[in-house]
Amino acid sequence: MSSEAPSPRSVLVTGGNRGIGLAIAKAFLANGDKVAVTYRTAGELPEGILGVQADVTDEASIDAAFKAVEEAHGPVEVLVANAGITKDTLLLRMSEEDFTSVLDTNLTGAFRVVKRASKGMIRLRKGRVVLISSVSGLYGAPGQINYSASKAGLVGLARSLTRELGSRGITANVVAPGFIKTDMTAELPEETQKDYLSRVPAGRFADADEVANVVRWVASDEAAYISGAVIPVDGGLGMGH
Ligand code: NDP
């Protein structure tokens, strides 16, 4: 084993200006990597993190963001597709727009950034793709037909990507958080939060850091032989799904 410290990698986290994405960005920064995040609306970012504007529903803005990151940090070696939205409502009230807009951000958005990142990774002959899914993707959740479908789709994306690019030193994995304390979950009615809590074996909700540490690890050299996996970070909520 070499005693040299590994060289810093170019890491890009979509939707990394707040919530789980920001926690992930900070974890890579603490690891010594060169970290960039996409944001839609400008805000304060911690020192050392490069912010690039991008909307994952807009291919041109993704391309511009990648170019800026490549110029500053080199080709993206670790991509975390984290940007996501919810538009929860019961099936009979869900409009087609509610469905397709969530798919467009959560699933097609991941496809767009993965496709753009894969060019550089193929050239580098190495790369780590981590897709942020959700316990809802495999367990299901009432009111989340759009969201669950988008998050389940990420599993197929990671597994097909593994079969296409696995021989080139590239891994693709899914991290599936349960209930994490962020703006997204703060919006949920108190009754819904209580109901979720009663079903979490761990008996608590998690901090974003608990997801971030798993993402950092699955993107590390130590996890080089893990690909196409779905790694739950849910306190046992979705066990077996
Ligand atoms: P937040 O709502 O706190 O943050 C969402 C992030 O996604 C923001 O940075 C937001 O940017 C960005 N985003 C949304 N739409 C777009 C878009 N079209 N283009 C670019 N960026 C976009 O969510 P969380 O931090 O809670 O969630 C992060 C991820 O984790 C999501 O994929 C979510 O589905 C998943 N997740 C969260 C769970 C939880 O309990 N919180 C549980 C399971 C999964 P902006 O600031 O510009 O709006």
**Termini separation:** 37 Å
Determine the CATH superfamily. NAD(P)-binding Rossmann-like Domain
Structural class: alpha/beta
Chemical compounds bound to the protein: NADPH dihydro-nicotinamide-adenine-dinucleotide phosphate
Sequence of strands across the biggest β-sheet: 3-2-1-4-5-6-7
CATH architecture: 3-Layer(aba) Sandwich
How many distinct beta strands? 7
Low-confidence stretches: none
The averaged pLDDT comes out at 96
Total number of helices: 8
Whole-number radius of gyration? 17 Å
Protein name: 3-oxoacyl-(Acyl-carrier-protein) reductase
Keywords: Oxidoreductase
GO molecular function, one term: oxidoreductase activity
Pfam families: adh_short_C2
What would your notes on this structure say?
By secondary structure, this protein is α/β, with parallel strands linked by helices. It has a single domain (10-180, 209-232), classed as Rossmann fold. The protein has helices spanning 19-30, 59-73, 96-124, 135-139, 145-165, 183-186, 190-199, 208-218, and strands at 10-13, 34-39, 49-53, 78-81, 127-132, 170-177, 230-233. It has a 7-stranded parallel sheet, sandwiched between helices. It is globular, with a radius of gyration of 17 Å. The mean pLDDT is 96. NADPH dihydro-nicotinamide-adenine-dinucleotide phosphate binds next to helix 1, strand 2, helix 3 and helix 6.
Question: What does this entry show, briefly?
Answer:
The protein has 241 residues and is an alpha/beta fold. The protein contains eight helices and seven strands. InterPro entries: KR_dom, NAD(P)-bd_dom_sf, SDR, SDR_fam.
